[in-house]
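Supplementary Note 3. Input sequence used for the single-chain structure prediction.
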Amino acid sequence: MTGADPCNPCRDWADTLRTPSYQWTRMIDTLTVSTTGPGLYEFTREARRFVSEAGVSEGLLTVFVRHTSASLLIQENADPDVLADLKNFFRRLVPPADDPSMRWVVHDTEGPDDMPAHIKAALTQTSIGIPVSQGEMMLGTWQGLYLFEHRDRPHRRQIVLHLGG
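The predicted structure, written as discrete structure tokens, is reproduced below.
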């Protein structure tokens, strides 16, 4: 072997195992979604554009929301009643802190919607992985990506999109 290390003849062979036969491509961007209060805000179109512009054929899109009082969902995007029902379900499941059933809540520094927003975020998810194939997200026909705002006031939420492939 030319250039082989005489002290460790396996080093060259081991180095070839650590060298991948493909090139990883990574792209990352931050999307800002302005909310007007509680509800689901679709950003599927923006995520599709990000994936398309990345030029990655196969990979994984990771979507992450940088907040503790908002979350992410993949949900039906054909019938708005689904979104209304989800919003109402979570409001019934976790009412505002000034509701008599929530007297146990201690954290209310930012208002009666704050701790319930943290609870709703804990029950859902702040990160989602979506497979990408042939340069497109592998979402189902009626699936869309949503930011789920849990606070009463308007916010500017940051969503990180990271595509590796």
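The mean pLDDT is 89. Strands lie at 26-34, 39-42, 59-65, 70-76, 127-133, 136-137, 143-149, 156-164.
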